[in-house]
Amino acid sequence: MPRDFKSAGTCPKCNAEGLTCRYNHFEKDELCIDSWEHKCADCGYRETTGYRSDDPQELQPEDVSICPYCGRRVAI
Ligand SMILES: [Zn+2]
Ligand SMILES: [Zn+2]
User: Fold this and answer.
1) Residue 49: which residues within 8 A CB-CB, separation 6 or more?
2) pLDDT at 1
3) Å from CA of 56 to ligand 2 middle
4) Is the pLDDT of residue 11 over 60?
């Protein structure tokens, strides 16, 4: 299993234990996008947050390597 894909415990919607936490990183020319996704394979519950390098400074998180939902950190 890749390191950016991890079990995140229990789904807040259906309480199944299939919730996963995924980190993605995209780069296109000058643009970088870091995104986090929590997703339940059981009921389809999904929440995502994305950070774009061309967003204004005040929208940038302190650290994109920390999941805004569960607080886990990935090595970038
Ligand atoms: Zn669910
Ligand atoms: Zn997470």
Assistant:
1) 35, 36, 68, 69
2) 40
3) 24
4) yes
